[in-house]
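Hey,
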Amino acid sequence: MIRRIHIIIDCSGSMMAYGKKEILLNANRALRRCSMKREYQSFQIGFYQWNTEITIWNKGTLQIHGSADINAFMNFLEECEENDRILLLSDGSFSLDEIEIKLKQDKIILLPIAVGADADLNSLKRMSSVRKVYTISSIIDVFERICNGFDQEVR
C-alpha cells in the first residue's frame, strides 16, 4: 500500500488569472481537512508549491509568479520513490515532454487536477498515469481513492 502522497500546486504566473488562486486555496483547505482524518494518519502527505522550484508549502500565501520550471519538477521526480503518488493541481501551461518520459520510466503515479476554465486538458492528460484528467470539484474523491488504492491497476 502506498504511504507517500505529494500534492503539488502549480504557482506559475498563469495561476493568477480567472480566480485560480482562490480555487487553489479552497482546494488546499479541503485537502488538508480531509488528510487529517484518522484513516489517513498513516500516510505521509506533503503539500508543495511549484514555480521556479518546488518547495514545501505549509499554510499561508501561495507565492504565484514566474513560470513552472520543468527542471525543478524533474528534480522532484528524482527524489520520489516507486510507490509515491502525485496530485498535480495545474492549468497545464508548461512543456511536458521531459516529464512524460520520466513518468514512463519510473513507477510514479501522477494524477493531474485541472484548475481553471482555460486549463490545457490535452497536456494534462498526456502526463496523467491513468490517461485521465480530473476536475477540481472531484479533488477530495480523487484523494480518497488514491489512499484506498484505486490506481493500483495502472501498473
